[in-house]
Amino acid sequence: MSALTDLSSYSAYPIVQAPMAGGASNPRLAAAVSGAGGLGFLAAGYKTSDAMYQEIRQLRDATSQPFGVNLFMPQPDTVDPSAVAVYAEQLAGEAAWYGTELGDPETGSDDAYDAKVAILLEDPVPMVSFTFGCPDRAVLDAFAKAGTCTVVTVTTPAEALAAQWAGADALCVQGVEAGGHQGTHRDDPQLDGSGLGLLSLITQVREAVQLPMIAAGGLMRGEQIAAVLAAGASAAALGTAFLVCPESGASALHKRALTDPVYARTELTRAFSGRPARGLLNRFVREHGRYAPAGYPQVHHLTQPVRRAAAGLGDPQGMALWAGQGHRLARELSAGALVETLAAEQRAAQEARA
After folding, report:
1. Contact, 67 vs 98, CB < 8 A?
2. How far is CA 121 from CA 53, 71, 124, 127, 146, in A?
3. Which of 15, 112, 121, 274 is the 20 to 30 A CA-CA neighbour of 73?
């Protein structure tokens, strides 16, 4: 099985639970989504290769339905260490306030990519997606030989063309409305703020390449799923919508913040990781976002102890509260009930248009 043209081979509904690195996506959530007729995803980012393998084992024990695993691509060594050092000086007060130390920015930039690929080729899963770049043809061909469908996250038509040329089976087309990190293949600070909205991006990508698309970016309702399907997508990926589910591994602070009127809007910021990522506008973003350098994953490693300390103290103002633009539409449903609700809303919207 190596094509996404017939999504029913993977799930009853065209609903994908987006992989959310950092703990939100876990085997329990993915199993609940896949079991309800959607396609659950594990997020391997920020995990060791063994931790990824153990989560895959847990998920297989919990469901016999198809699922996916998301990998972060290794990042080029283009970060200016002096810029990261200056940012560290600015954050010294944050570390002191939360009673911790800043992290080591040179912890690593490849996210154990090669080891994770080796495990997934030796013990294949139905689907593997890639973020922050596109694998070379040899890797994608190896997954095709293993029977794994490959999906590359893209944010522009040019990235979609590169993924098609490399041999990807499908694309995750990510609009600027999406919560969490923008999955751009190259992090260029000069392009900050120039991201495309999802519907415009779907149309441009559809006219540029022949690959099936999973649409992602601010989707929270079945009517929106129907809209992106009508625009040419084969499925819709939702992340923020699943964050508040009881099966999600997101912290209680994060879940409450999504619908808390204190957090009126989201913003793309480099404050926590050095890469543009959409989250709720809190004190940390307001005070540090404008000064954060382009430095991923160095800034991520630098701020990690501060974020953990803030969470431990129950202070969401110092946490990375990733969220898409539709976060206020979050519903506290079980993952299975949410999948069924979204599917019913999607069908009703499509019938109304017929």
Report:
1. no
2. 12, 13, 5, 11, 6
3. 15
Q: Looking at the predicted structure, is the pLDDT value of residue 336 above 50?
A: yes
Task: Note the pLDDT tens digit of each residue in 183-220.
Answer: 999 999 988 988 999 999 999 999 999 999 999 999 99
Whether pLDDT at 33 is above 50: yes
Which alpha helices (DSSP H) does 213-334 contain, by range? 222-230, 240-243, 252-258, 283-288, 298-312
Mean pLDDT of 309-331: 97
CA distance 343 to 170: 22
Can you tell me the distance from the alpha carbon of 17 to that of 336, in angstroms, rounded to the nearest whole number? 11
Residue pair 299/106 in contact by the 8 Å Cβ criterion: no
- Counting every residue written for the chain, the total comes to 354
Determine the Cα–Cα distance for residues 27 and 35; give it in Å rounded to an integer.
Answer: 12
Q: Is the pLDDT reported for residue 2 higher than 50? A: no
- The CATH class for the domain spanning 7-75+110-250+326-353 reads alpha beta
Indicate the domain borders of the chain: 7-75+110-250+326-353, 77-109+264-320
